[in-house]
């Protein structure tokens, strides 16, 4: 606070911007930690439940137990499309058959892809801010430092004294901007890389689940 009070208007503005970036980044980090943890744990539980349960209708009746898992969204979308196709098949007196005429497996596949894209967007929400903070905060802090040093040297020129007692306080006040920039950027970069890795794992699980879901549908319902 002593450093902050002694800085100029521009450096104060820079420090406030960096403080905003830092506070928002930490809020996003804690939010994403909770979101990704829930997605991982509930996806594991849902997969275990999915393979233990033999009927799609029974699984669909219990999806509310796994609301934070992206896999339940994929299942709901795929099962919903499957039900539509089966209802159309029953209207044509061909129950439990997905005809090529109706789009069949392709319709379900498209529904799964749409759900996957939607879930990826949801999981990646706010991570862009972390990337932006990690890439720009050091430069914002450097700008504050350069401006502070310029101001310090201007003061030296006006006073005509270049002693350490005159120079050191101004330089120290200027360097605080770079320090705060790094304090904001480092956690943001670490958080962004961590979440990108976790999200890639979840994307892999979604792709695998989509493939398995389609295989089950083909084996159980599609025409040979």
Automatic annotation (TrEMBL):
Residues in the signal sequence: none
Q: What is the lineage of its organism?
A: Bacteria, Pseudomonadati, Thermodesulfobacteriota, Desulfuromonadia, Geobacterales
Tell me where it resides.
Cell membrane; Membrane
Per its UniProt record, what InterPro entries does this chain match? ExbB/TolQ_transport, MotA_ExbB_proton_chnl, Tol-Pal_TolQ
What organism is listed for this UniProt entry? Geomobilimonas luticola
The answer to whether the entry has keyword Transferase is no
Q: What is the protein named?
A: Protein TolQ
Ranges in a coiled coil? none
Question: Where is the chain membrane-spanning?
Answer: 13-34, 129-150, 162-190
Q: Which family does it belong to?
A: Belongs to the exbB/tolQ family.
PANTHER family, per database record: PROTEIN TOLQ (PTHR30625), TOL-PAL SYSTEM PROTEIN TOLQ (PTHR30625:SF3)
Q: Where is the MotA/TolQ/ExbB proton channel domain?
A: 105-207
């Amino acid at each position: 606070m002593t450093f902050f009070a002694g800085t100029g208007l521009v450096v104060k503005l820079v420090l406030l911007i960096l403080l905003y970036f830092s506070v928002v980044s930490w809020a996003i980090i804690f939010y994403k930690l909770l979101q990704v943890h829930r997605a991982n744990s509930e996806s594991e539980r849902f997969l275990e439940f999915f393979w233990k349960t033999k009927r799609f209708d029974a699984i669909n009746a219990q999806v509310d137990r796994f609301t934070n898992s992206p896999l339940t969204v994929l299942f709901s979308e795929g099962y919903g499309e499957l039900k539509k196709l089966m209802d159309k098949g029953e209207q044509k007196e061909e129950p439990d058959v997905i005809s090529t005429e109706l789009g069949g497996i392709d319709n379900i596949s498209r529904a799964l892809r749409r759900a996957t894209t939607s879930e990826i967007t949801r999981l990646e929400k706010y991570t862009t801010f972390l990337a932006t903070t990690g890439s720009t905060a050091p430069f914002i802090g450097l700008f504050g430092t350069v401006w502070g040093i310029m101001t310090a040297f201007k003061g030296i020129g006006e006073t005509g004294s270049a002693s350490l007692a005159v120079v050191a306080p101004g330089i120290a006040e200027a360097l605080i901007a770079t320090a705060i920039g790094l304090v904001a950027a480092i956690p943001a970069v670490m958080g962004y890389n961590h979440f990108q890795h976790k999200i890639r794992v979840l994307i892999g699980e979604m792709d695998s689940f989509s493939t398995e879901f389609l295989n089950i549908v083909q084996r159980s319902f599609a025409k040979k």
